[in-house]
TrEMBL record:
PANTHER family for this protein: CHROMOSOME-ASSOCIATED KINESIN KIF4A-RELATED (PTHR47969), KINESIN-LIKE PROTEIN (PTHR47969:SF33)
BP GO annotations: microtubule-based movement; mitotic spindle organization; spindle elongation
Domain spans labelled Kinesin motor: 1-335
Organism ancestry: Eukaryota, Metazoa, Chordata, Craniata, Vertebrata
Predominant localisation class: cytoplasm
Name the record gives this protein: Kinesin-like protein
Amino acid sequence: IRVRPLTCTETQRGDQQVVHSLGNGTIHVSAARHDATFGFSAVFDAGASQEAVFEGSGMRQLVELAIDGFSCTVFAFGQTGSGKTYTLMGPLAQSETRPAAPGLLGLMQRSFSCLLEQSRSRGSDLVLSASYLEIYNEQVRDLLSPGPPCALPLRWSKTRGFYVENQLSVDFESLEAIADLLLQAGSQRRRTSAHALNKHSSRSHALLTIHIRSRAVSMHPAPDTTCHSKQGTLCFVDLAGSERVKETGSNGELSVEANNINRSLLALGHCISLLAKPRGKRTHIPYRDSKLTRLLARSLGGSGVTLMVACISPSSRCLLETLSTLHYASRARRVTTRP
């Protein structure tokens, strides 16, 4: 769980801080008629640095597992304006000409550094490529393909599961190349809009997947030389924020977007609730209910390793959404996969 600081607007308005970290992964919500305590793997309060979140969330282990051939996913979840994009990518104002201060970089950039650092220290030959998609109004669009984003078909096969047809994959060798790719596609092509709760509200779910192929060559007494190949993935999912249309003042196209966002998050929540039940009591998991749950099917209930960072606001005005996120995350914590 990550708790963002109160904003200037919230402080000036006189909002109370209703969320408090008690240490040891415990968080307490105290407000009129609401008094609840939750336990998680880790809780980062408003003073936690980006580096503390990277090291304390287990993100470094996730990168190492991806190099070892596992399918790894991290997703940021929470109300609109709760700090999801900042946690994953850092400040929104950064660009190629105006990079962010190193201390403010998010989980993505830190993971890329860790990935390249690990590949050098292990002496393995890593081949890295990336694909970047967004789900906007229930359409899957490629953020890396040139020209205006167009809808791509989502298919299913027995061997691959759900996959996106004709998506572009770009090879990269340096940290700068993937960081530039991320900034160009993420900040310039992804759909965002302003509303009452967030000036830069993400209007789509974004999925950046790093494909890692490693070849470790081991030399045996001549002439035998063996080459072991592993393929892993590291997927970053920046979910659009859940929002109450009444609070955001959305109408017209913004309202349609909000309804599509909320519908897909509801489908995701439903899958998580069913996956949280003991294996013997599980019924059919409805992954086909939305494009988002189809693309996350393997991460949620398959053979992958998944980290969820739930972002919340400490403001009394956001109390209901904060409680909703905490209950959602509590259910997600009970889901077990078999990596």
